Amino acid sequence: MPAFCRDCDAAAERAACGRCGGRRIVRHDELFALPIAHVDCDAFYASVEKRDRPELAARPVIVGGAVRGVVSTACYVARMAGVHSAMPMFRALKLCPDAVVIRPDFTKYVAAARQIRALMERLTPLVQPLSIDEAVLDLSGTAALHGAPPAIVLARFARQVEREVGVTVSVGLARNRLLAKIAAGRDKPRGFCAIGTEAPALLADEPVGLLPGIGPAFARRLAGLGLTRVGHLQALDARAARRMLGDDGPALVRRALGEDDRPVDPRRATKSVSAETTFDADLAAPEALERHLWRLSEKLARRLREADLAAEGVVLKLKTSRFALRTRSRRLAQPTRLPDLLFAAARTLLARETDGTAYRLIGIGAQPLAPGAAADRPDLAAPERNRLVAAQAAIDALRARYGAGTIGRGRGLG
């Protein structure tokens, strides 16, 4: 069975590497023939924070909002106490009262993600980002270029990320995207797992929720039909699957068997960019809500610039004190990434919702998106827009030189 040491690339025949003594040995019958990789950073935001604050290395770290916010990322020490992403912060702190809570710093995270993305693109042009800390790669036909099969190239990549970026990644290797994603989650953190033709047998005893697209509600529906394990889905023929699960049933059975024909597509576009905040106390006053909306508009504008995108429309998100969600949207006359114009559009939407209702959360999103080159083009008929473009460029230059807190806008104060 092909095997090698992840620490030095040497061929390995025993539990420990004969060259370096390392015990991170990867073995699989198809190890050097699998071309699709899913790369997932380990507790990414928390890892970046621990990288920058080494004294936190052994401490439980939670990245997220204030007490009424939610967990963005929990390090693996905190996860051992039961903390997980999207958990309300108050519940996370009950489970792990000694955790160090850190507000997210997306500027740092984006910078680290870009470093990792650049290293991926040295391996293959077929890199499809899935999120800031996750991507899928197709390394088919790259063995001659790198002088090594994809498995060894990826092990070198993981070591390079750890050495140069200061965070760790887990790698899943398979013949398609579905199995690569499942593999990436099997041995975290610092994992490296391969899945090949043994996939149906390997997956059969797993809960159906392992499959992408099956959330808690769908899993309960399947359980009502007696389908709790992946193997139960594998046993259905196309006719039974369609009768029990509708037109999507046969596709679900194919996923249960580990089949997936989706290509790795670097052109796959981001669908939306957004920013939101949860308040420490419910807010109903329009002025207070607008102050938060302005700050989020600035954050959204920055994220659009960082992604080289522009907003063709604005989405306002509100959550009431009773957790009822309201979303409102409107199209813009021209694509923009100016905070003033994003705020103006969202403010109009907000005005219709400030009827005395108390809100615990507010957010603003850009959707649909346009290329950054389409944003805020000079227009002789719109001198005010041209002035805003010039003013924002000056603000960005000052912040780039002296720091993000160097200059602020009056409406964001208070």
Describe the structure.
The protein has helices at residues 44-52, 76-79, 89-95, 106-121, 143-146, 150-164, 177-184, 199-203, 216-224, 230-234, 238-245, 249-256, 286-306, 339-351, 383-402; strands at 3-5, 25-27, 36-41, 61-64, 71-74, 100-102, 127-131, 134-138, 169-174, 192-194, 273-283, 309-320, 325-336, 359-366, 369-371. Helices cover 37% and strands 21% of the residues. The model has no long low-confidence stretch (mean pLDDT 90). Helix 11 packs across helix 12. With 414 residues, the protein is of the alpha+beta class. The strands form 4 sheets. The chain has a 5-stranded mixed beta sheet. Strands 11, 12, 13, 14 and 15 form a 5-stranded antiparallel beta sheet that branches. It folds into 3 domains: 32-196, 2-Layer Sandwich (Alpha-Beta Plaits), CATH 3.30.70; 200-256, DNA polymerase, domain 1 (Orthogonal Bundle); 273-412, Dna Ligase, domain 1 (2-Layer Sandwich). It has 15 helices and 15 strands.
Features of this protein?
414 residues; alpha+beta; Alpha-Beta Plaits; DNA polymerase, domain 1; Dna Ligase, domain 1; five-stranded mixed sheet; 15 helices; 15 strands; 21% strand; globular
Strand order within the widest beta sheet: 7-8-3-9-10
Major beta sheet, specifics? 5 strands, mixed
Task: Tell me the number of structural domains.
Answer: 3
Mean pLDDT: 90
